[in-house]
Amino acid sequence: MENLFLICLIPPASIVEDVDKIRNYIADEFKVYESLKRPAHITLIAPLKITSGATEKRFFSALSTAVFSDAFTQVLSHFNAFPPHTFYLNVEQNRGIMSLQSEIKKALNPLKLDSQRDNFKFTPHLTLAFKDVKPPVFESIIKAFKDRKFKRAFTVSGFSVYKHIDKKWQPYKEFQFRNPQENPSKRDLFNS
């Protein structure tokens, strides 16, 4: 058994439609298609390979401990890039998203699913083009979008787990936030 899971935020359908229009425009205009193979998403934890049923059970159990959070507003604003090949929508850093990613990472840490990512700096973004973008095309995309504006906001009240099935990322499980006061690991010893 070997499964690949991605932990992410999926914007509401109306925003995904707008993002997909941009991704399709980039694909048609610049002949780069790799990003269209994935759903429009904000990666919280990069894909993790799980090789046993017992580990998968512990994985989902650990994720259920990271749901004690207040909802927050997430803003997508304008365009940015990781040279020389990744072009993306900027995901504004805020306490909500940074805390959520940190809590998920902390919950998964004991499972040691990917120790090489321990020093990974989380830069939230929503990828529009990558992987098959060559440097000259990258420069053309940057030039085409340098004066364009984009801004959308949405409420985040949970996170998603996608599973790689038949060479596609498919929605697999949703985790809705729960009241932080209900978190059993944070109960006050004197107010129980």
From TrEMBL:
InterPro entries reported for this sequence: 2H_phosphoesterase_YjcG-like, Cyclic_Pdiesterase
Coiled coil (UniProt feature): none
Pfam families recorded: 2_5_RNA_ligase2 (PF13563)
PANTHER family in the record: PHOSPHOESTERASE SAOUHSC_00951-RELATED, PHOSPHOESTERASE YJCG-RELATED
Protein name (database record): 2'-5' RNA ligase family protein
Organism (species): Pedobacter petrophilus
